[in-house]
Amino acid sequence: MSTVIPFHKPFTDSQEHLAMQHVLTAGTLRGDGPASKRVQQLMRTVTGSQHAFFTTSCTHALEIAVQALGIGPGDEVIMPSYTFVSTANAVLMHGGKPVFCDIMPDTLNMDFNHASRLVTARTKAIIPVHYAGVAVDIDAMMKFKSTHGVHIIEDAAQGADAYHQGKHLGTFGDFGCLSFHDTKNITCGEGGALLTNNPELARRAEIIREKGTNRSAFLRGEVDKYTWIDRGSSYIQSDLLAAVLEVQWQKRTQIKELRADAWNQYQRLFEPFEQDGKLKRPVITPGAETNYHTYFVTTTRTEQRDILLEAYKQAGIQASFHYIPLHNSPFGKKLQEGNVPHLPVTEQMSERIIRLPLYPAIAVEHPDFCERVYEITARVLK
Ligand SMILES: *Cc1c(COP(=O)(O)O)cnc(C)c1O
């Protein structure tokens, strides 16, 4: 068998090693040191966000956002069922109730029409997810906010260096949350960022992130001692990882260009199969400037998806399915106390999706990746 093509692989080299070494040598290992300050400034510059907090994860950034918006017991938050568990957990951690909506069949992004039918007097916020680094329908999202008067927390975990009409994902709502987990485009292993343009929300987030104290204001010399003023936790990430993340953000253009090349090769490869009605290729909606986080196709039938996945696996191509819908998960069912909704697009698409291996070095490490994927696909779908 030929070599295995991994599903993903972080794009690191000696620069990340060197950056960590500098921090170790300087002895500034804890959080909010020089490297954190630099990477937060860099993130503000790239995203255009007034405030950018480096956090321990995107999950934690979502938790801070939920708490800062005062979401708690009795409050409902609408989100797609087709997402990672963190989107829902963040709401639950503060006593709120996740309400699951359906997705669009082309982008697998939140269906705002369906979401608007789920609004009740208790709806406090929505958490749209920019799936695969492709913006949700931003116009529909902003209209939703003005019509229903709810808060928006953007789950832009997959959206680092992705935009809508030149504006970075995660900067449209009250808060935006990015992930730097090693499966994401820009990574420091584990990490996240919280973005906001609202100074009052930024002040609250800063306190929650610093264990409920005003230590950040103290370090800026704004108060003469720091003390406990709110509930909070330890959401500050080490400067060792900030140093790695800084290098990764500096490489963002190269990372995106290499991913774009591989993504576009897949898009050409799968065109004939789409023309034959065997599967559908991803759609980049007008205005969306993707970061090429994921390349996925959806088959017309579930059985075919499973056969294809197995064939790729046998051939050493680490293709993958994706989310098990949250509304149908064991814990999701328990939360909904027997009122499990039917979300037809979510249920269909989650059983038909295939994500192909995609990472910056894929074409260098596996120059024949397209031929191999094509060969298997053609053999199964002939
Ligand atoms: C990766 C991911 C998260 C979680 O990110 P962490 O940094 O690992 O906490 C949340 N939501 C979505 C949509 C993701 O893809």
Distance between the termini: 22 Å
Reported for the largest beta sheet, the result is:
7 strands, mixed
Q: Roughly how many Å is the radius of gyration?
A: 21 Å
Write out the distinct hetero groups bound to the structure: pyridoxal-5'-phosphate
Low-confidence stretches: none
Order of helices and strands: HHEHEHEHEHEEEEEHHHHHEEEHHHEHH
Fraction of helical residues: 40-55%
Please give the count of helices.
16
Basic shape: globular
- Beta percentage is 5-15%
Spatial ordering of strands, largest sheet: 1-9-8-5-4-2-3
Secondary structure: number of strands:
13
Question: What is the overall pLDDT average?
Answer: 97
Content-based structural category: alpha/beta
Kindly describe this structure.
With 382 residues, this protein is an alpha/beta fold. Helix content is 41%, strand content 13%. The chain is built from 16 helices and 13 strands. It has helices spanning 14-26, 34-47, 58-68, 85-93, 112-116, 138-148, 199-209, 215-219, 239-250, 252-269, 271-275, 302-314, 330-335, 344-350, 362-365, 369-381, and strands at 51-55, 76-80, 97-101, 123-126, 151-155, 163-164, 167-168, 175-179, 192-196, 279-280, 288-289, 296-299, 353-355. The strands form three sheets. A seven-stranded mixed sheet has the order 1-9-8-5-4-2-3. It has a three-stranded antiparallel sheet with strand order 7-6-11, with no helix packed on it. A three-stranded antiparallel sheet has the order 10-12-13. Helix 1 (14-26) packs antiparallel against helix 9 and helix 2 (34-47) packs parallel to helix 9 (239-250). The radius of gyration is 21 Å and the shape is globular. It starts with 13 loop residues before the first helix and ends with a helix. The model has no long low-confidence stretch (mean pLDDT 97).
